[in-house]
């Protein structure tokens, strides 16, 4: 079965439709959820291109990250997806982007939104059998991007993308999301932006961040590296997602 792809009219976060012609109509690319491929959907939705990454691409990255592992720690044991943060970071690096973990102790106001290509949220998700909630705990990747001067929630579990609004609305949205300790935010920036720190305002001081240079296997401990980035144990911070 092929990907479920929607190019549909977007609604706002409060459920009211925006009028066509104001930058929120049917030009948005949106892949919908299949199996445990939310990481692939989040990446393709972020780049607004079908096939920017395929399941084969992400599986190859898993093998490069842990070439000798009998059971690859970066994806589902069943091979259905469920890719971890290391795979997302490696994929973005292939496109010339760094991935920066946002320290939730800092204010969203510290971010220079105009220098950030997009956002990826890692959020809890629930499994249900009919109306019964199952005791299965997984997380889910979603992407957020500015399209036609408005930020859009491109969650693959939505029927259609949802308009968040301008930068003020995005600040409020991200602030509300990050009040949940189980949610994490990744910033996607061009490599030169990551190197210069132009994704943050000069008045804000951040601790060392995890960028694409910090990709490591799941057995590595958190250690600082020479460029000031941080290697992090992905299975502790970002469990497998779907």
Can you walk me through this structure?
- With 242 residues, the chain is of the alpha+beta class.
- Helices cover 22% and strands 25% of the residues.
- The chain has helices spanning 38-47, 55-65, 85-94, 167-178, 191-196, 234-237, and strands at 4-6, 11-12, 30-32, 97-101, 118-129, 132-147, 150-153, 162-165, 184-190, 223-224, 230-231.
- β10 (223-224) and β11 (230-231) form a beta hairpin.
- α2 packs across α3 (85-94).
- The longest helix has 12 residues, at 167-178.
- The chain is globular, with a radius of gyration of 18 Å.
Q: Indicate how many domains the architecture comprises.
A: 1
Beta percentage is 15-25%
| Shape assignment | globular
The biggest sheet, with number of strands, parallel, antiparallel or mixed sense and barrel status, is: 7 strands, mixed
Distance between the termini: 18 Å
User: What would the CATH topology be?
Assistant: Cathepsin B, Chain A
Number of helices: 6
What is the total tally of β strands?
A: 11
Physical arrangement of strands within the biggest beta sheet: 2-8-7-6-5-9-4
Q: Low-confidence segments, ≥5 residues, pLDDT <50? A: 11-24, 211-237
Structural class: alpha+beta
Mean pLDDT: 77
């Amino acid at each position: 079965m092929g990907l479920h792809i929607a190019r549909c009219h977007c609604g706002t976060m409060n459920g009211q439709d925006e009028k066509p012609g104001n930058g929120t109509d049917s030009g948005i690319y949106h892949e919908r959820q299949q199996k445990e491929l939310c990481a692939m959907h989040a990446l393709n939705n972020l780049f607004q291109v079908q096939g920017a990454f395929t399941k084969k691409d992400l599986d190859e990255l898993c093998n490069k990250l842990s070439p000798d592992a009998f059971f690859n720690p970066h994806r589902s044991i069943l091979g259905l997806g469920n890719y971890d943060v290391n795979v997302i970071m490696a994929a973005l690096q292939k496109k010339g982007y760094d991935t920066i973990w946002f320290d939730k102790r800092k204010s969203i106001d510290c971010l220079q939104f105009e220098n950030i290509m997009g956002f990826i949220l890692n959020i809890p998700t629930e499994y249900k059998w009919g109306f019964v909630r199952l005791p299965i705990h997984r997380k889910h990747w979603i992407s957020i991007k500015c399209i036609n001067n408005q930020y859009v929630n491109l969650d693959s579990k939505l029927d259609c993308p949802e308009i968040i609004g301008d930068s003020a609305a995005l600040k409020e949205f991200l602030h509300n999301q990050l009040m949940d300790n189980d949610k994490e935010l990744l910033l996607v920036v061009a490599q030169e932006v990551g190197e210069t720190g132009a994704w943050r305002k000069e008045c804000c001081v951040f601790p060392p961040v995890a960028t694409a240079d910090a990709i490591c296997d799941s057995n590595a401990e958190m250690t600082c590296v020479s460029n000031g980035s941080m290697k992090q144990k992905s299975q502790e911070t970002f469990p497998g997602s779907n």
